[in-house]
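Q: Please design a sequence for this.
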């Protein structure tokens, strides 16, 4: 039994606006944790590399897609990534390469191993990015949900393999 198991493991999902992809990831991952009985072991949050939508609820299209699958995003509010997030969170999961690059610029060198790209936890999908759905149609939001559902299952398996739950 590792010492780490006594401590809450903290996961932060990051996209550009924190109104579409990362709130979906936060909601889907929390729902998975509840279903696995792990909600009190892993803390989940999300944030944006931009501050464009701070204080806003998730995009109505993301909320609708998630609710259709039984996941409620309505209580979430957008916030920007803060410098303290790099120390606070154990797994900082960027939705795409652009956001990962931005996080790498801001993250202290000694904490860079905490940075991940979401789809690296679902290698079978063969995708680099969770595509930005903001300027597209409803099918984009459905696709985002599916990519995130698969990736977050892989993320939980990684956290378990790492001995962090
Ligand atoms: P997100 O989507 O990064 O998944 O929250 C976006 C939300 C807003 C904008 C772009 C992407 N925007 O340009 O305002």
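A: Design:
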């Amino acid at each position: 039994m590792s010492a780490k198991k006594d401590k809450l493991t903290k996961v932060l999902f990051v996209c550009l606006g924190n109104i579409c992809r990362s709130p979906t990831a936060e909601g889907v991952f929390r729902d998975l944790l509840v279903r696995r009985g792990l909600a009190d072991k892993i803390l989940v949050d999300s944030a944006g590399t931009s501050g464009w939508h701070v204080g806003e609820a998730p995009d109505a299209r993301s909320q609708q897609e998630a609710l259709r699958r039984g996941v409620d995003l309505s209580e979430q509010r957008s916030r920007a990534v803060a410098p303290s997030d790099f120390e606070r969170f154990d797994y900082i999961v960027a939705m795409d390469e652009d956001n990962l690059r931005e996080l790498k610029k801001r993250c202290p060198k000694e904490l860079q191993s905490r940075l991940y790209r979401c789809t690296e936890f679902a290698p079978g999908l063969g995708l680099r990015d969770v595509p930005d759905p903001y300027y597209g149609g409803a099918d984009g939001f459905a696709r985002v949900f599916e990519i995130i559902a698969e990736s977050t299952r892989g993320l939980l398996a990684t956290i378990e393999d790492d001995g962090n739950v």
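Q: Thanks. Anything notable?
A: The CA atoms of residues 39 and 152 lie 14 Å apart. The radius of gyration is 15 Å.
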